[in-house]
């Protein structure tokens, strides 16, 4: 995936939108994705494609006939992702996750994965992303979020019925995984 040095420079240059000091580690990605049932999932959404570390894990696990929508506000990251994932069933979208409804064409997602930096996103946009994620998730679907603050669990309680929280030290910094349905 692209030149790691250039990707890291872009990450640090735009920390206010990337919200990260490093990319998600493979153990964190594997743990996050382990809470999802990929078999039979036809529509999958990723909020915050970044360097593609979660994207790669999703593609490795998803069914051949599934479609993955990857939302990323950083144009540079989108350009890199489009080069790495030219498949027709991988849609790289340079737009805010708050607009996910415009791309799902009235459909709903089986799975939504997010690494968005919710603590850095303004409250109205955060609310819109959570509402649209909830409203465009199938009843049996899951919204799975990586975050670095346990307090975000209380925010997600406003939108989801059940939230299971998991913690992993196998990332820098250590992270929480919120599994919401």
Tell me about this structure:
With 181 residues, the chain is of the alpha/beta class. The chain has a single domain (25-180), classed as Vaccinia Virus protein VP39 (Rossmann fold, 3-Layer(aba) Sandwich). It has helices at 4-13, 15-18, 26-34, 53-61, 75-84, 123-135, 152-156; strands at residues 43-47, 67-71, 90-93, 109-114, 137-147, 163-168, 175-180. The longest helix is centred in the last third of the chain and has 13 residues, at 123-135. The protein is globular. The model is unreliable at 10-21 (pLDDT under 50).
Helix fraction by DSSP (H/I, runs of at least 4): 25-40%
Order of helices and strands: HHHEHEHEEHEHEE
Give the DSSP E fraction (strand runs of 2 or more residues): 15-25%
- Class per helix and strand makeup: alpha/beta
Q: What order do the strands of the largest sheet run in, or round the barrel if closed?
A: 3-2-1-4-5-7-6
The parts where pLDDT drops under 50 for at least 5 residues are 10-21
Average of the residue pLDDT scores = 89
Which CATH architecture would you pick?
3-Layer(aba) Sandwich
* N-to-C CA distance: 32 Å
User: At the fourth CATH level, what is the homologous superfamily?
Assistant: Vaccinia Virus protein VP39
Query: Total strand count, please?
Result: 7
Number of helices: 7
CATH class: Alpha Beta
Instruction: Specify the overall morphology.
Output: globular
Q: Per CATH, what is the topology?
A: Rossmann fold
Tally the structural domains: 1
**Major sheet characteristics:** 7 strands, mixed
